[in-house]
Design a protein that fits this description.
This protein is α/β, with parallel strands linked by helices. It has two domains: about 25-105, GMP Synthetase, Chain A, domain 3; about 110-220, Ribosomal protein S3, C-terminal domain (Ribosomal protein S3 C-terminal domain). It is about 40% helix and about 30% strand. It has seven helices and eight strands. Strands 1-2-3-4 form a four-stranded mixed β-sheet. Strands 6-5-8-7 form a four-stranded antiparallel β-sheet, covered by helices on one side. Helix 1 (about 30-45) runs antiparallel to helix 3 and helix 4 (about 115-125) packs antiparallel against helix 5. The longest helix is centred in the first third of the chain and has 18 residues, at about 30-45. The termini are far apart.
C-alpha cells in the first residue's frame, strides 16, 4: 500500500492533517471540494515560478482563510500587494465569501520539501538541462539539509528519445509503510518540446517516536519539524 498511494494519504488522522478544513452537510460538500480545487489550481498555475509547496484552506463561519507556503513570497505578494488583491477577488468571485484572509508563509528549507524539490527539477528540465545532473544535485542538497533519504522518479521522453521511459534515483532509505515516519511527497511536470516529463519526489525527514512529537506534527505540519531542528542547531552553536 505504501508504494501505491502518496505517503500523506495513508497517514491522515495519524500524523498528517487535511489541507482543507471545514464542516458542511453532504449536499454542500461537493461545491466546497470544487472551489478548493479551483483556488489551488489558480494559485499554483499563475505563480508557478514562486515554487509553491501547498495551499491550506480553512473555513470558519462566514470567513475563509488561505495559507500559501512558497519559496519566493515576493512573487506571490506582488508590488504593493497587488497579487494578493487579485487572488482575493478570484476567491470572492467563485465562493461568494466576502471575508477572505490570505497569509503567505516563506519556506525556510525548500530542500526538505518534496514539492519544492520536484518543482525545481521540473523548471530545470524545461531549460534543457541534463536531467541526471539536475537530479543528482537536488539529491545532494537534500541530504546535506539533513534528510534521512530521498527517492526521485522521472518519466517521459528523457533526453529527447523516441520511446518514453522511467528512471529512479535513490539515496538513503524511504520507509513507506512506517506510519510514524515523516515522508514528504511532491509531484510536478516539465513541459518540453517533446512532450511532458513527470517528476515524483519522496523525502524521508524524521521518525516521530513519541506521542508529543506526533501530536505537534499533526497540528503544525512539516515546517514545525524543520524550524525546531534549526533552533536546536542554533542553540548548539551558541553553547559551543
Amino acid at each position: 500500500m505504501g508504494q501505491k498511494v502518496p505517503p500523506q494519504a495513508n497517514r491522515i488522522g495519524f500524523i498528517e492533517n487535511w489541507q482543507s478544513q471545514w464542516f458542511v452537510d453532504f449536499k454542500t460538500a461537493p461545491d466546497y471540494v470544487e472551489q478548493d480545487y479551483r483556488i489551488r489550481s489558480y494559485i499554483q498555475e499563475k505563480y508557478r515560478h514562486a515554487i509553491i509547496s501547498k495551499v491550506l484552506i480553512e473555513r470558519i463561519g462566514g470567513q475563509l482563510f488561505v495559507n500559501i507556503y512558497t519559496v519566493r513570497p515576493g512573487i506571490v505578494i506582488g508590488r504593493g500587494g497587488e497579487n494578493i488583491n487579485e487572488i482575493t477577488d478570484f476567491i470572492k468571485k467563485i465562493t461568494g465569501v466576502e471575508k477572505v484572509s490570505i497569509k503567505v508563509t516563506e519556506i525556510e528549507k525548500p530542500s526538505l520539501d518534496a514539492q519544492c524539490v520536484a518543482e525545481f527539477i521540473a523548471l530545470a528540465l524545461e531549460k534543457n538541462m541534463n536531467y541526471r545532473r539536475v537530479i543528482k544535485n537536488a539529491i545532494a542538497r537534500t541530504m546535506e539539509a539533513g534528510a534521512l533519504g530521498i527517492k526521485v522518479r522521472v518519466s517521459g521522453r528523457l533526453a529527447g528519445v523516441e520511446i518514453a521511459r522511467s528512471e529512479w534515483f535513490r539515496e538513503g532509505r524511504i520507509p513507506s509503510n512506517t506510519f510514524r515516519a515523516v515522508i514528504s511527497y511532491g509531484f510536478s511536470e516539465a513541459i518540453i518540446k517533446k512532450g511532458k516529463i513527470g517528476v515524483k519526489v519522496w523525502i524521508f525527514i524524521k521518525e516521530l517516536l513519541t506521542k508529543q512529537e506526533q501530536e505537534k506534527f499533526f497540528r503544525e505540519g512539516l515546517y514545525s519539524i524543520i524550524s525546531s531542528d534549526k533552533e536546536k542547531q542554533e542553540n548548539n552553536l551558541v553553547g559551543e
